[in-house]
Write a structure and sequence with these properties.
Distance between the termini: 69 Å
Number of domains: 2
Organism: Acetobacter nitrogenifigens DSM 23921 = NBRC 105050
CATH topology of the largest domain: Purple Acid Phosphatase, chain A, domain 2
Largest sheet: 6 strands, mixed
Pfam family, one: Metallophos
GO molecular function, one term: exonuclease activity
CATH superfamily of the largest domain: Metallo-dependent phosphatases
Strand content: 15-25%
Helix content: 25-40%
Number of helices: 9
Mean pLDDT: 90
CATH architecture of the largest domain: 4-Layer Sandwich
InterPro entries: Calcineurin-like_PHP (IPR004843), DNA_Repair-Maintenance_Comp (IPR050535), Metallo-depent_PP-like (IPR029052), Mre11_N (IPR041796), UCP033093_metalloPase (IPR014577)
Low-confidence stretches: none
Order of helices and strands: EHEHEHEEEEHEEEEEEHEHEEHHH
Keywords: Exonuclease, Hydrolase, Nuclease
Radius of gyration: 27 Å
Number of strands: 16
């Protein structure tokens, strides 16, 4: 038995920090990755794709957003897609899954909305045991019923659930959507496919989180985001073979730098461009740059990092920029500039005064220097 394990598509997800262009690209790629999942299954000879919850990002998507993933899955009639609700798209009365059923599922797509064992193949040698969330947060384990679920003797039992094997509260009784990490042993599962965590996490020999197939946050960009799992189970109690496959397109990276010179700025530019020199438009970078730059180097930082590099990447999110100081060499740029030179000297004095105008003086001086360089060709 071979299948693809995926989860947390969160179709329709919004990214508050992204502008219109980046947001459209991110949302579109969450649909395109469904096609990559289908192609992966075909290439590897997997007849089934299990999606462990959070197909949708919220409970009330537009009709178009509701139908878009269904139409992508329809393009692979030779693949069976099996879905369960997650905490973002729990199976509420008259909720998103009621709308999905009303819209009509493709013949090759099954939404498992009740905890009922279901055969996964024609020979009924493998059975799916779905855990179903009927609210966003619950204190009960949706996999507990699997322990006593009846399946044919000798069948492979595959669990599918959405929740957390580890609570984030100091009080275990307050953990929501709990999943017992030893559920595969208690329920005699050949494999338990989990969703909720957005990065790959192997919980045990028979249990794993696939993570989101398209990364969606900076803190998982280098730790398993953008992957899906190919799982092979040869016998009910045989250890499953789990292979990680990269399915995400976008690269999310956190970059920190301390800048004090023009050389530091150039080095930072090279680091950002080196994330993907061949296709920088698939890079999202979160930048924290501290330190103090001379006025001339700050001008280069603004032009090369905030200007050129930011235009090359899909997104450059700048959380922190370095401070600026005006050196004698910086003020020398204005030599012979008459009134402009006098204005620069005045702004420099204000910047060093510590008075109420200090916070405005250096930005004004940077702007003045940039305009003068542009006018004079310096």
């Amino acid at each position: 038995m071979r299948f693809v394990h995926s989860s947390d598509w969160q179709i329709g997800k919004t990214f508050a920090f992204a502008g219109d262009e980046a947001l459209q690209a991110l949302q579109a790629e969450r649909l395109e990755v469904i096609l990559r999942l289908g192609r992966l299954a075909r290439k590897e000879g997997a007849a089934t794709i299990l999606v462990a919850g959070d197909v949708y990002d919220h409970e009330s998507p537009s009709d178009r957003t509701l139908r878009q993933p269904l139409e992508r899955m329809r393009q692979f009639p030779d693949i069976q897609w099996r879905l369960i609700p997650g905490n973002h798209d729990a199976h509420l009365p008259n909720g998103v899954w009621s709308r999905v059923l009303k819209a009509g599922l493709p013949d090759n797509v099954t939404a498992h909305l009740e905890p009922v064992p279901t055969p996964m193949n024609a020979g009924e040698t493998a059975w799916l045991l779905p855990g179903v969330l009927t609210r966003r947060h619950t204190m009960t384990d949706t996999t507990a019923w699997m322990d006593g679920a009846a399946t044919p003797e000798g069948a492979m039992r595959i669990g599918l659930a959405h929740g957390s094997v580890r609570g984030f509260s100091s009080d275990p009784s307050q953990q929501t959507n709990p999943v017992a990490p030893d559920r595969p042993d208690k329920a005699g599962l050949s494999y338990l496919a989990l969703g909720d965590w957005h990065g790959f996490n192997r919980i045990g020999p028979r249990c794993a989180y696939s993570g989101s197939p398209e990364c969606d946050r900076f803190d998982t960009g280098g730790a398993g985001g953008g992957e899906s799992l190919l799982v092979t189970v040869d016998a009910p109690r045989a250890p499953p073979e789990i292979t990680r496959h990269v399915t995400g397109r976008f690269l999310w990276r956190e970059v920190s730098a301390t800048l004090s010179s023009l050389e530091d700025v150039r080095a930072l530019e090279n680091r950002l461009r080196a994330i993907d020199p061949d296709e920088p438009s698939r890079v999202l970078a979160r930048l924290k740059a501290d330190g103090v730059l001379p006025l001339s180097a700050m001008a280069v930082f603004e032009e090369s990092i905030l200007g050129a590099v930011a235009s090359a990447l899909l997104l450059l999110r700048v959380d922190q920029t370095p401070e600026t100081t005006a050196t004698e060499a910086d003020l020398g740029v204005f030599e012979g500039a008459g009134a402009i030179s006098e204005a620069a000297a005045r702004l420099t004095a204000l910047a060093a005064s510590g008075g109420p105008d200090q916070k405005h003086a250096l930005p004004a001086l940077r702007r003045l220097a940039a305009l003068w360089r542009q006018e004079s060709g310096a």
